[in-house]
Design goal:
Blueprint lengths: L5 E4 L2 E2 L5 H12 L5 E8 L4 E8 L1 H18 L15 E10 L3 H19 L3 E5 L10 H5 L6 H4 L21 E5 L4 E8 L2 H11 L16 E8 L4 E8 L7 H14 L3 E8 L4 H15 L6 H12 L9 H4 L1 H4 L7 H4 L2 H9 L7 H23 L9 H18 L2 H16 L6 H30 L2 H10 L5 H26 L5 H36 L1
Parallel strand pairs: 5-7, 6-7
Antiparallel strand pairs: 1-4, 1-5, 2-4, 2-5, 3-4, 8-10, 8-11, 9-10
Helix pairs in contact: 1-2, 2-3, 8-9, 14-15, 14-16, 14-17, 14-18, 14-19, 15-18, 16-17, 17-19, 17-20, 18-19, 18-20, 19-20
Amino acid sequence: MSSARVVECVPNFSEGRNEETIQAIASAIKSTEGCSLLDVEPGVSINRTVYTFVGSPESVVMGALSAAKVAYKLIDMTKHHGEHPRIGAMDVCPFVPVANTTLEDCVRCSKSLGEQLARELGVPVYLYEASQERDYRRSLQSIRKGEYEELQEKLKQADWAPDYGPTTFVPRWGVSVVGARKFLIAYNVNLLGTKEQANRISIALRESGGSTGKKPGRLKLVRALGWYVAEQGIAQVSMNLCDYEVTPIHTAFEECSKDARELKLGVVGSEIVGLVPLKPILMAADYYIEKEGLFVLHESQKVRLVIDRLGLNSISEFKPQEKIIEYRVGSNTDGPLASGSVRSFVEQLAARTSAPGGGSASACIASMGAALGAMVGLLTFGNRKFEALDPVMRVAIPPLHSATQQLIPLIDKDTQAFSSYMEALKLPKTTKEEIAKRKQAMQDGLKDAIEVPLNVMKIAYGCWDYMITIATHGNETALSDIQVGGCSLHTGLKGAYYNVCINLKQVTDEDYVRTVREEVERMSQSSEDKLTLLLDTVKQRQNKGQ
């Protein structure tokens, strides 16, 4: 899986009619390094355009700021009219975690943008959703109440002073609302039924339940309604999954299907409207793999399984490279070391530089060890000769496959962590304050440099029981491979151990040093014992076969 950090940004600008303005804002986003503009959706009647783009946390903030600067010059709220509620030129700008990022990361993005909008454009900014600490002004609806027309009076109220920027009214701009929220998935389940039947199911499922609100629906953080799609000849339960970790896609589909069966309605697939992160797709895959007792390892096969089980091709073809955000933006890549050639990596190790060094080599060697274990397991699984061992291999192979995938990105992370320590060494040390800041940065850099090889050790050590299982039961024609795998796993773990120990010597936090040292000494010694057991096990099998 990808190690890239991806945040989605969805700014809404109060202009949906002037094509030049719409394209100028889009160009500002596209020209920002690290940003990928995925969608531009203007609405004439609402006089509003929604932009969707992704990138690293740092780049999406710059993309949003660049777009806002263009809008500041081109949009005049004193002349704006439209059907959609609005309060400013950049009306609302949410940041959404997509891959290897958290809601907290997005809160930091929103606050960074808010500060820069206020400082560089001199405009008022409100925070909302997860970024807002005060309950009464957390919802966008509360902030927008009165809209642009009543904003001048609203800003005078102490309770509605902006989080950033002036309390004075800026007529051309209004106010911007920025914040962080979870990814919202627009998801429809297709039924051979009527609008009324689809709506009946939607009421039973959505969190708010019926119109009286006395009986909530079964699915948390879900908004839903039923409608009929005449051109398709189907009804749909149309849902907004506001937090896919609370109510995943597969849960929504299964619950909707359950109600449809009770009404004797046919379910004919479903559709995801817009883009979707990879994680909820893999969550659905894991659900069906466990439910059906399947053995599926590779990401591409998991995606195919979900497309089939949810019927995502029923309305139009679900193309993973276009519909899954990480694939769309090409973030499914490793760092330069792991994604380069073997020759390139080895030659860089041989160069007259301190990074990449032993830490990156250790992560690489450990990944090879886990990979060889998975390979021998796969040469055993599904082989008719070893059919009785399939249940054993089903348990042993997935953790080794997972460990391989986890260790590969650490090849680059070790070099990056060491580089942060080297940067700390270059900090100025003239004043007492600079000396203290440099010292703290060096200590932080050392801990970062320790955490990566420590993680290598933990992941590698977690492989041992599965490696020994495969050495005990695996295909006898590949026993030399499990021997090489065991030696590689131990060498990678031991190399990481040496990297941890050398950096621990310079750490001044005694509690941290003691805790880490105890942990790595235990894993290092136990790894030697595990390797001996694995090699002895293979030797006994080889002697028995002679």
